[in-house]
Design a protein that fits this description.
Layout (H helix, E strand, L loop, with lengths): L2 E6 L1 E4 L4 E8 L8 E6 L6 E6 L6 E3 L7 E6 L4 E6 L8 E8 L13 E4 L3 E6 L1
Parallel strand pairs: 2-11
Antiparallel strand pairs: 1-3, 3-8, 4-5, 4-9, 5-6, 7-8, 9-10, 9-11
């Protein structure tokens, strides 16, 4: 069974940091770009950032650029989202997801992603 399992998240004060991890099972994700999305109550999935299959390229939304950082360790099928300088508006459920197509990266649309993690809640207090 192919799945992505997330860990991390929690409650933090504004200006603080959190790190989310995403581990892949049932498939070698080395050929697939990984995206991170977030969803606040009553809103659609919002693209946060992504990383190419080799990890050589990362890309971010304007709202998190300079504050968030994505990395991956293909030997461990593990991807991470480091979130610094968190703001209350960053509060949401965060999801990792793998691209539907191999050797493709840069997609910002949730429709281009096939497998999704179960989500991790991030709450930032003011």
């Amino acid at each position: 069974q192919v799945q992505l399992v997330e860990s991390g998240g929690g409650l933090v004060q504004a200006g603080g940091s959190l790190r989310l991890s995403c581990v892949g099972f049932g498939r070698n994700f080395n050929s697939y770009a990984i995206g991170w999305f977030r969803q606040a109550p009553g809103k659609d999935h919002e693209f946060v950032g992504g990383i190419s299959w080799r990890g050589k390229r990362t890309y971010y939304s304007e709202s998190v650029k300079g504050r968030f950082s994505i990395s991956r360790d293909n030997a461990r099928n593990t991807m991470s989202l480091q979130m610094n300088s968190l703001k209350p508006e960053d509060t949401a459920g965060y999801y990792c997801a793998s691209e539907r197509r191999s050797l493709i990266s840069g997609s910002h649309s949730s429709q281009e992603y096939e497998y999704w993690g179960q989500g991790a809640q991030v709450t930032v207090s003011s």
